From TrEMBL:
Gene: pigm
Compartmental location: Endoplasmic reticulum membrane
Pfam families linked to this entry: Mannosyl_trans
UniProt pathway: Glycolipid biosynthesis; glycosylphosphatidylinositol-anchor biosynthesis
Cellular component terms per the entry's GO annotation: endoplasmic reticulum membrane; glycosylphosphatidylinositol-mannosyltransferase I complex
One annotated GO biological process: GPI anchor biosynthetic process
Broad enzyme group: transferase
Official protein name in the record: GPI alpha-1,4-mannosyltransferase I, catalytic subunit
Assigned EC number: 2.4.1.-
GO MF entry, a single one: GPI mannosyltransferase activity
């Protein structure tokens, strides 16, 4: 994909990712209008992504997060339009590009299988079992699975076992002892030569799995909200967490903000709290990286505090979120 950077210009990759940033804003606009916002309101909320300095900085330094934003937002748009074949194609491609998008599989499956075309005389467990045989869900699973497996097989034939190891399997055993926002980094730093290091790396997935399962079951009916929460939880509790990972959920934030009943003052307060958490981590990280001082414990405590701050922000979003159905009912009453 980035071969033109060699043959045309070294800036090709950066230009590509910047274009993807702009296209992500266009996709946000279309999704927001489908969710009932006026054209002006959709423009304002889309601008929160387009004018955000973080995605601008990440894209212009050559990171491909904007490309994933396009794939995720395109999938959501197609699902809103009930174009399940196209959505499945895009979703399979997104999982191939970056494996983290597999966290959307359960909420997407529940979202597709929860439409009114299912017979209502089954309830409880029987309804869930019946929903698994939905034609739309079967189509989505078949197309997405074929897309993912087809690409995996193609690249395996080209690059062999190294492709599987570096692309997928590596994440199961990854233990990054370099300082990062993750609350686990110091544990991995201290146990890097321990015989239990591999087991610890697997155990850290447990909080993520539990939280993702709970949020998927609770919020799947509002897919953008569910995907946002799943991504924010996944990043916050991940074994490795860096600033570019924030873009994974920030690209979904404009879809959530219009449905919050927070005041501007409260919203700015939460934003400042989030930035404060990063600042408290970055200060000791600077002294470790550039001054050579031993600030590992301080960085670890700052990472724990940042996790708490992220949790507080997510709780506030959940508590102040007005479901899409309620908004639509109020508009009809008017």
């Amino acid at each position: 994909m980035l071969s033109p950077s060699i043959y045309l210009t070294s800036h090709f990759g950066k230009l590509l990712f910047v274009i993807c940033d702009v296209l992500s804003g266009v996709l946000l606009y279309h999704i927001l209008t489908l969710r009932g916002l006026s054209s002006d309101a959709a423009c304002h909320f889309s601008a929160l992504w387009l004018l955000n300095p973080l995605p601008i900085g990440v894209s212009t330094r050559g990171n491909a997060e904007a490309l994933l934003a396009i794939l995720v937002l395109s999938t959501l748009l197609c699902l809103q339009l009930k174009r399940h074949f196209t959505a499945a194609f895009l979703y399979g491609l997104s999982v191939h590009m970056k494996i983290y998008t597999v966290i959307y599989a359960l909420p997407i499956a529940l979202f597709i299988s929860n439409h009114k075309d299912l017979k209502n005389h089954y309830k409880g467990v029987f309804r869930i079992i019946q929903s698994l045989f939905s034609k739309d869900l079967a189509l989505f699973a078949a197309v997405a699975g074929a897309m993912f497996l087809g690409l995996t097989l193609t690249f395996y034939c080209m690059y062999g076992w190294d492709f599987l190891q570096e692309t997928y399997l590596y994440h199961l055993t990854r233990r990054d002892i370099r300082h990062n926002f993750s609350p686990y980094f110091y544990m991995f730093y201290l146990t890097v030569e321990s015989e239990f290091c591999f087991v610890l790396g697997l155990v850290t997935f447990l909080p993520q799995v539990i939280l993702l399962l709970l949020t998927s079951l609770a919020f799947y009916a509002d897919l953008p909200l569910c995907c946002f929460l799943n991504t924010a939880l996944f990043v916050s509790f991940n074994k490795v967490c860096t600033s570019q990972y924030f873009l994974w959920y920030l690209c979904l934030l404009p879809l959530v903000l219009p449905h919050l009943r927070l005041t501007v003052k409260q919203g700015i307060g939460l934003l400042l709290l989030w930035f404060t958490g990063q600042g408290l981590w970055l200060a000791p990280a600077y002294y470790l990286e550039f001054e050579g001082r031993n600030t590992f414990v301080i960085i670890w405590f700052a990472g724990l505090l940042f996790l708490i701050i992220n949790s507080v922000v997510m709780v506030q979003i959940i508590n102040n979120y007005i479901p899409k159905t309620i908004v639509q009912q109020k508009k009809k009453m008017k």
